[in-house]
Amino acid sequence: MADVHTTNTNATFDIADAGVLAPFFRWDRVQALHVTPDAGTMLLETLEWHASSASLQPVFWTGSPGAALTRVPRLRARSAALLPDGDILCLRVPTTSPSRDAGHTGSSLWLRSARTGTLTEVAWAPGGIRSYACSPDGTTLLYAAPMHQQADSLEEDLLLRLSRRALGQSAVLYDGTRVRPDDPDGGSLPVRLLVCPVPEPETTAEPPVLLPPAPAGVFTGEFAVSDGGQVLVAGTIDDESATATTFRLFVTRRAGDGYGPWEPVPGPPGHDLSQPALTADGRRLACRSTLIASPDVPPDRGLWVADLDAGSSGRTIDIAGLWPETVTWSPEGDQVYLTADRTGHRPIFAVHPETGGLRRLTGDGYHSDVHVAGGHVYALRSHVCSPPAPIRADTTGGGPEDLWSPVPELPVAGRLLDVRTEAADGTEIRGWLCLPDTPADSPLLVWIHGGPLFSWNAWSWRWNPWLATARGYAVLLPDPALSTGYGRDFVARGWGNWSGAPYDDVLRLTERAAAEPDVDGALAAVMGPSFGGYLTNLIATRTRRFGAVVSHAGIWDIRQVAGSSDVAWRYLREYGSPAGAGARHRAENARPHAADIDVPILITHGGGDWFVPLSDAITFWNDLRRLGKDAKFLFFPTEGHGIVRPGNVQLWFQTVFAFLDAALHGKPWERPPGL
Asked: Where are the beta strands (DSSP E) in 493-619?
């Protein structure tokens, strides 16, 4: 009989214990939530520390929403989905299976029977399955797998892979697609989509139908499936040229034993379409519509609804300037539910697809994993001061209630303030200020978020301010120009001008936080990742306001990064081409002002980062060394743009706190253990 997990191995851990970091990063955490359409069963995915692998591993829990859930035994998997009858679909990399015996090396799709607990492999591909979706009625699977361009079947793809392996070949030839060195196949293999029925547990799955290749660009892994697999919608990214990238949606319908050709979903001119959601009957589509920006035109985002069976061009629904993040339909197809950033939170909203009537269903917090079932909206809710936990809210507007979670509450040591001030142009700007429990003259740490289209509105296991407040610091989380949740005009203030309003907003919010009676504003440090790292680097060249700087994956030479980044299209839209004159890039570049830096700097970067390539960090490091600056470089060979492994995140914090001890407090530098 499965056990009911009610305690955490680190349940005695106190976040206020400043000398302890490891238990925090090994704490169990809620990862994902699913609910059956009748609201009879809920599935929670949590992460649990495994000392043998020094990693957090998925654990699954099922039961009735609101009641104590039961741990699913012996299921080592990821990316689970819950079927209407309680069966579980998931991705696994098994040690033995028929597909592995045939030469398969990646993840395959498995079905776990709710009745017997038996696992059955239902779909596989030689290069592994990247992602998948299941129809609302639980009958049809759509999944994505990379395949060689010369292959017309999974069997041919396997033979090509085995041949390359036998010949010791690993070269990649690009002929128009983006270079993706971090991809297992080098990014050269297009993703193909396959469809198959969901078999009964412990039965053999039918062979899949291989759908036609992407009609434009490559599939992104965003897709939706209607009941019975009658209608399929898939997203693509199309690098039309070195200076133009678009995101589109295509639809196909069942035709006999197969499917018809991909047809484009018509959208508003000059817009990307993404995040598709289908009604269960496949008649209507809702998705995000994003204005394709240019250096002189900032982006905008809205909700697009199309009647697929009527051949209409669709329409934009008025949602009061909200920028949708996730989109889903009610089971009846009469309401759209979306999440959107709003002044430091991400609530859930209900929208009528005909009238555009908008209702806010939740208040504070950041909401994700939204499911609508049985007259309720289910979701995970977190806050800057609390990790994700399951909740449900009445679709008619009743307040959300907390649901049972297997993860014990993690007490936060500190106080949270919403601080606001006025920007140079009169715009109200704000951020969160995290303070220690005990009032004191706390040194100030300013953490600038990445993105830049982002907001400090959720719990973060990576950038967690409460580990700093436990050490007596105050931590400011500013939302400067370009932050989301404040309207398009707020984004426009910093569009194509990162060194303007965003830079100034951070400094003004810093002074606002420093004016708090419990903050010692004279003793301050600034840090941030990616875009936040860019502003951190720029601040280091322009002002002596801060006594220490920590830049993680921060952009140093924006012209170099704009030309080599895996998401170069973002820079092209905002700044134009870095080739030629590149006047906009020169105006924003921190690198020419390296000699003006007069503050200790800690650079941190991952070896597999292709958003801000490692070469930029090495350039930064070499510039500082050549100029004799006070700098250190913490390198993570196995990490990417972000640091995700708990042990590495712990080591990052240990190094940062040791660096701050020396740079801000004048203590002797002590190299953290293990470095």
From this structure: 519-529, 548-552, 601-606
- The confidence band for 434, taking pLDDT boundaries of 50, 70 and 90, is very high
- For residue 136 the two structure tokens come to 């609302």
Which run of H or E residues covers position 559? helix 558-564
Residue where the block lists tokens 């209407």: 84
The answer to whether the beta carbons of residues 534 and 526 sit under 8 Å apart is no
Adjacency order of strands within the sheet including 358-360 = 324-329, 336-340, 348-351, 358-360
Say if strands 315-317 and 301-307 run parallel, antiparallel, or are unpaired.
antiparallel
User: Is 275 in a helix, a strand, or coil?
Assistant: strand
pLDDT at 558: 93
Give 73's strand partners: none
Give the tokens for residue 465: 């301010």
Rounded to whole angstroms, the Cα distance separating 500 from 305 reads 37
Amino acid at residue number 249 = L
- Nearest Cα to Cα of residue 410 among 29, 5, 4, 6: 29
Q: How far is Cα 498 from Cα 555, in angstroms, rounded to an integer?
A: 12
Distance of alpha carbon 76 from alpha carbon 93, whole angstroms: 9
Determine the average pLDDT of the residues in 409-428. 93
| pLDDT in the model for residue 669 | 95
DSSP secondary structure code for residue 342 in this structure: B
- Where b means 16+ CB within 10 Å and e means fewer, 15-44 reads bbebeebebbbbbbbbbbbbbbbebebbbb
> How many whole angstroms separate alpha carbon 389 and alpha carbon 359?
23
Q: What is the pLDDT of residues 477-501, one digit of tens each?
A: 999 999 999 999 999 999 999 999 9
Identity of the residue numbered 291: L
Find out whether 40 and 64 touch, Cβ atoms under 8 Å.
yes
Beta partners for residue 223, in sequence order: 234
Nearest alpha-carbon partner for 429 in 476, 499, 377: 476
> CB–CB of 452/458 below 8 Å?
no
d(CA 266, CA 284): 13
Strands of the 271-278 sheet, one edge to the other: 271-278, 284-291, 301-307, 315-317
Q: Amino acid letter at 534?
A: Y
Here the tokens at position 510 are: 């810093």
CA pair distance 256, 467, nearest whole angstrom:
59
Q: What is the mean pLDDT of residues 410-435?
A: 94
Q: In whole angstroms, what is the distance from residue 595 CA to residue 615 CA?
A: 20
Name every residue whose Cβ is closer than 8 Å to that of residue 260 and which is 6 or more positions away in sequence.
Answer: 252, 253, 254
Residue closest to 71 by CA, chosen among 329, 352, 405: 405
3-state secondary structure of 589: coil
